[in-house]
């Protein structure tokens, strides 16, 4: 299979066999639109998360692709997947966002339970703290707005 190039938000390039990422509907559409020779930009995904997704997709490359939502029990998680899920909350959130953006159904099924556990019984302030960007600037003046816009561009 052809080797494709992915560029993460932090501009790191990953070269990977396209067969490994057949689990991503978004990547497949990008390949149709831009071809296998293009560098496929993933502006919403940092390099750490791209590595984790490649790790997961490589391990699951021979799994059958499924269009259904399945009702597998949470107990059906393999030991490899259980080890894969031993990550901090921030990485779990980032992988959830990336798997949603990339439309990787198998990965979304895997992280559904830990993600649900992460947000269960949280108050509104706790949810805000969990989901707000860490480098957000509080706006108190026109200068704060400029700093906030600059922070978003970086």
TrEMBL record:
InterPro entries: SKP1, SKP1-like, SKP1-like_dim_sf, SKP1/BTB/POZ_sf, Skp1_comp_POZ. Keywords: Ubl conjugation pathway. Pfam families: Skp1_POZ (PF03931). Residues 134-154 are annotated as: Disordered. The keyword Ion transport does not apply. Pathway: Protein modification; protein ubiquitination. The keyword Transcription does not apply. One of its GO terms (biological process) is ubiquitin-dependent protein catabolic process. SMART domains: Skp1. Residues 3-62 form the SKP1 component POZ domain. Belongs to the SKP1 family. PANTHER family: SKP1. This is SKP1 component POZ domain-containing protein. It comes from Henosepilachna vigintioctopunctata.
């Amino acid at each position: 299979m052809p080797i494709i190039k992915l560029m993460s938000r932090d501009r790191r390039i990953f070269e990977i066999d396209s067969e490994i990422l057949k689990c991503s509907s978004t990547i497949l559409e990008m390949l149709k639109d831009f071809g296998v020779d293009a560098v496929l930009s993933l502006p919403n995904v940092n390099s750490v998360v791209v590595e984790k997704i490649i790790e997961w997709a490589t391990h699951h490359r021979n799994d059958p692709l499924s269009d259904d939502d399945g009702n597998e029990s949470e107990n059906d998680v393999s030991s490899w997947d259980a080890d894969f899920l031993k990550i901090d909350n921030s990485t779990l959130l980032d992988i959830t966002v990336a798997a949603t953006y990339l439309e990787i159904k198998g990965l979304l099924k895997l992280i559904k339970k830990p993600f649900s556990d992460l947000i269960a019984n949280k108050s509104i302030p706790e949810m805000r703290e969990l989901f707000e960007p860490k480098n957000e600037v509080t706006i108190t003046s026109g200068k704060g707005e400029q700093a906030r816009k600059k922070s978003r561009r970086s």
